[in-house]
Amino acid sequence: MATHEVTFPITDEAEILKLRAGDEVTVQGHIIGIRDRTQIRIFDEGVEPPMDLRGAFLLHTAPGVRKVGDKYEPVCIGTTTSARMVRFTEPLGAQYGVRAICGKGGFPDEAIEPMRALGMIYFAIVGGAAALETTQIEEIEEVAWEELMPECLWKFRVRDFGPLTVGIDAHGNSLYHDVQAAAHEKLKELYARL
Amino acid sequence: MSTVATDIQQAVEDAAAHLYVWALKDIPQDLRDALAEAKDRETSIPGKRVLETIVRNVEIADSNSNLVCQDTGIAVYTCRVGEDFPLHPARIYEALKAGTERATLEHPLRSNAVHTLTRENTGPNTGYRLPIVHWEFISGWDGLDVKCVPKGSGSENMSFLKMCVPADGVNGIKKFVLESIVESGGKPCPPGIVGVGIGGSADYAMYLAKEAIARPIGTRNHDPHVAKLEEELYELLNETGIGPMGLGGDVTVLNCHIEHADTHMTLNPVAVNYQCWAARRASAHVAADGSVDFDREA
Fold first, then answer.
1. pLDDT digits (tens, 9 = 90+) for A79-112
2. CA distance B89 to chain A (A)
3. CA dihedral B76, B80, B85, B90 (to 10 degrees)
4. Hey, what domains does chain A have and what are their CATH numbers?
5. Nearest by CB to B239, which of A37, A77, A190?
6. 3-state secondary structure of A121
């Protein structure tokens, strides 16, 4: 299990292909905050997102912020459960060129094939570790769709964002799939013992 | 009497405002100890990485006076009201609601409350029937105990109810809890506290499961039959290998708490309510004269 540092947005696909399920990754550069309502607006209501998502790293978040003048400042920024939003994986990659989705709790198996086909990664963050995550966000650079507060489209500049674990890689491997398969085998053994 | 009541109402409101923020920032010592112990015990590489990050995060929340987790949850209060406490529960509810709103606006805290159909925000973590308050009334006493449990959605979404039949027995209960936690995977931010409610009725079993997650970690049910089941489930759950954040490992749960009620001869309800690793809770005791003691470990 290797460790890597990756800067987003990426332009070279090799940056994604070198990552393997279980690897530890620290992220630099810019990441985009997105959540349920943001993606419902893009895909179910057909509204074009006013930010470039090519090569992007998306974070499943609804940040706690305060407004100072024209700017939003972080109060507490953490990450939400990804599984609710799995159906957006394929169109995010195919239509907008998104390369990484980061959240907590993992994606179910239906994300494995689109991520393999489109060269995408699922990064697992430590859910609930928002006090740490907030210190890694240097600035909230842009906010679009403020009327969806806090489920807007957010652009954050980050430093040393992580540690993240590659949960699903672009080669068809998923830690979540492996853990679930092993747990179901284990359950059979535990039930036999009851 | 009205002057006294108003002062006490203010005291309860102030206590609620303090409890909500305190619970979000400063997790109890028993939980800190359990997380540190889990970090030392975990052998999987991603699992250990997760637990080291969690412990570091709790320290950063302390030093930066920030929230441990961004999910300020829905505010859930448990009140034990003495029959001679000089403020009616209707006014206690008003005070808890006002305290929740004040804490949300003054900090500021993220407001999560929405109408369940329109999804429009309903207020500063308040709305119709929010916050949620559970009541217990105590005869021959003049005090009020308030416990605030901000409940995050990641773990609350992992709630399960099954009306087992009597013939399913204790093994039926064990299987349902195991299956629920495996199905939850990494979604509820493991390792946390698995709350189980058994007996009573469908609604009461889930209420009991919520009571169970709010207990100090590792405390055992007063009934030895139930306490034995808590121990057995705790060990079985940690054999599933789900691990920290569902990435695989030795520590899937920090503990398993069960609350029970006697039930109908043909019922065997089992409810599971998960509490994430950031198992936030904070308590206060309000005396009849309006003085307040905050209790870190209750």
1. 999 999 999 999 999 999 999 999 999 999 999 9
2. 32
3. 40
4. 3-193 (3.20.130.10)
5. A190
6. strand
